[in-house]
Amino acid sequence: MDRESLRLTALAPPAPPPETDLAGLYREHRVGLVRLAVLLVGDLETAEDVVQDVFARLQGRRRPLALTLAYLRTCVLNGARSVLRRRAVMLRRTQRSSDLADSAETAALLGESRREVLLALARLPRRQREVLVLRYYLDLAESEIAQIMRIGPSTVRSTTARALARLLRELGEDA
Amino acid sequence: MSTIEDRLRDAMAARARTVPDDGLDHLRPAPRAARRRGAGTAAVAAAVAVAATAFTVVRLAHPSPAPSTSGVGVTSASPTLQVSIYLCGDTSPYRGCRKGAATEREKERVRQVMAARPDVAGVEFEDRRKAFENFRRSETNPRLLKVVTVEDMPESFRVRLTPGADHAAVARAASRLPGVSNVIDEACIRDGFARLGSGDGVVDGCDFNGGG
């Protein structure tokens, strides 16, 4: 079953050619995963680090039986979550808001309407944001989203509905 | 008109497209050697330091201190946001730049006028190279990254304000000086995000064009 293939295995992977396998996956999917991550964490540098970490970790001993794209996406989701958690802690501690302001260059270069949407997206609760990214960026089916997020399909549905409703509220009537 | 779903699709696709295909690969090695534990923390630190991210702004955005009040109780965590004064280059398209690049004299005048203001805490010059470094760090559009060179970057003054200063007034004053192409009020941008969060409008009027 799908779920089965996704499970982490406690056993060490069969030795033969893990490196080439992983290197291939890296070449093929890195950019796509960074794009996914950037929508979850908000900036490129962190996104690249998240993906880098995922691959670095996969070189270690803990490996799923089959390395699938869905599994990699789950890893990225998890990586993004912990980054956001740590970032929140750090911000509470340091209170140095000015360091985090959008640079003037970035502000001047970004499109207003899209930025509005992305900001609203960033304000959503974590799970709602993830569902929207998987659904409307990756165009995944409910079942695939359920698989990647490890939640039930009905939860995917209800979370999506709530997230859209909230976005609508945040963006106002003009959306 | 466009539904929320379409807007979402469009915005996310656009954001994703800003991630270059391979442009930044040379900046970081492929994950050959496993990274030390705790590398993630370093990543966060770097991200926080750079943080050219719209995302983080939202978390921090809080209402600005009232503009005109004299130095009463400094709004506790009031961050020192800057006003960025961009100077005319040879090819600046701005109205205030019809006479070409800002002269040394004009630059010095901008510095002096700004430094003399009581609501200004400090003035720093940012040269093209520094601007280019910042740009490389924060810009994610691969096409821009490919074509923009050091020479394309504007010189600028970064003006730090005293707590409670009227940012807009400083920005407007700066925009009237000769040799200034445009002025960006970062506090205004941030407050715009705050307003956005409270469903009260969008960022607007934070950019003051020179010469007017």
UniProtKB/TrEMBL annotation, chain A:
Protein name (database record): Uncharacterized protein
Family: Belongs to the sigma-70 factor family. ECF subfamily.
Presence of keyword Phosphoprotein: no
Organism: Microbispora amethystogenes
The RNA polymerase sigma-70 region domain, residue ranges: 25-88
Cross-referenced CDD domains: Sigma70_r4
InterPro entries reported for this sequence: RNA_pol_sigma-70-like (IPR039425), RNA_pol_sigma-70_dom (IPR014284), RNA_pol_sigma70_r2 (IPR007627), RNA_pol_sigma70_r4_t2 (IPR013249), RNA_pol_sigma_r2 (IPR013325), RNA_pol_sigma_r3/r4-like (IPR013324), WH-like_DNA-bd_sf (IPR036388)
Matches recorded under Pfam families: Sigma70_r2 (PF04542), Sigma70_r4_2 (PF08281)
Annotated ranges, domain RNA polymerase sigma factor 70 region 4 type: 115-167
Key words, A-Z: DNA-binding, Sigma factor, Transcription, Transcription regulation
TrEMBL record, chain B:
Annotated InterPro entries: FtsX_ECD
Alphabetized UniProt keyword annotations: Membrane, Transmembrane, Transmembrane helix
Sequence ranges assigned to domain FtsX extracellular in this UniProt record: 81-183
Top-level lineage group: Bacteria
Keyword Transmembrane: yes
Transmembrane feature ranges: 38-58
Pfam families: FtsX_ECD
Protein name (Swiss-Prot/TrEMBL): FtsX extracellular domain-containing protein
